[in-house]
Q: What sequence folds into this?
């Protein structure tokens, strides 16, 4: 057997593994839209018929819409704050060399390795001790704790190869520090900023454990879904909700990719 044949065999095996991996990951997801149109309350074959009443029920459910509004509000706020903090931290780590740099970086990423249930219990105990009322604010603060490390890592990877001479050249030509940031630094960092916003929002939007401990009387969407799963008759509405979220996620990702490609073309 020649070397080329061995190489082709490895590529074929790798391709087959990739197909199986994608099927394993995405095939269960495809059952959401399938059963969301099923005219029955049980997730089972054969399907009872085609219906859109679960989507109508979802659209008219005030509790669900309020939970969705809470999740979007918390996720959007957390994404913006985490991205700002992550960008500032990444700029400090990539641009300057200072004492305690490595220990400080380790402290920032610690929440990524602490189990969520331990973090949730610790934050609940601390909130009770200092007298902070459980609300969307405590949920957002806990989400900020776990999204800021993600944002920092993303922005560090984006700013790692940034040439500081570009900023110095801009300032030598008479631009202020603020205008240098907007005309030089921000356009180059924009793909990382978009990625940080999307990842931080997604992480906050679907986070359950911390919200479970710190929600109080205000529920986010994952908490609402968890509560509805105890009632079999409401499962189809949850599937319709999952389908809507799936479609919205696809649209957001497609738009982000379109914006990234458009930015690359404009830059080119």
A:
């Amino acid at each position: 057997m020649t070397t080329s044949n061995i190489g082709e065999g490895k590529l074929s095996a790798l391709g087959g593994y990739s197909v199986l991996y994608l099927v394993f990951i995405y095939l269960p997801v495809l059952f959401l839209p399938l059963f969301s149109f099923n005219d029955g309350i049980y997730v089972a074959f054969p399907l009872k018929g085609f219906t859109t009443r679960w989507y109508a029920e979802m659209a008219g459910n005030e509790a669900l819409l309020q939970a969705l509004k809470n999740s979007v509000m918390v996720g959007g706020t957390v994404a913006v704050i985490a991205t700002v903090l992550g960008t500032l931290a990444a700029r400090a780590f990539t641009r300057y060399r200072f004492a305690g740099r490595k220990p400080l970086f380790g402290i920032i990423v610690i929440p990524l390795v602490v189990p969520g249930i331990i973090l949730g219990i610790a934050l609940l105990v601390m909130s009770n001790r200092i007298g902070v009322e459980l609300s969307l604010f405590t949920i957002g603060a806990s989400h900020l704790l776990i999204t800021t490390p993600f944002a920092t890592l993303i922005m560090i990877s984006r700013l790692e190869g940034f040439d500081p001479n570009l900023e110095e050249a801009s300032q030598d030509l008479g631009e202020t520090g603020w205008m240098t940031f907007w005309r030089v630094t921000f356009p180059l960092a924009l793909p990382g900023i978009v990625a940080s916003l999307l990842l931080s929002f997604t992480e906050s939007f679907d986070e359950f454990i911390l919200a479970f401990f710190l929600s109080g009387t205000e529920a986010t969407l994952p908490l609402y879904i968890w509560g509805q799963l105890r009632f079999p008759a409401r499962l189809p509405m949850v599937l319709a909700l999952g389908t809507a979220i799936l479609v919205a996620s696809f649209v957001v990702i497609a738009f982000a990719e379109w914006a990234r490609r458009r930015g690359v073309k404009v830059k080119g």
About this structure: The chain has eleven helices and no strands.
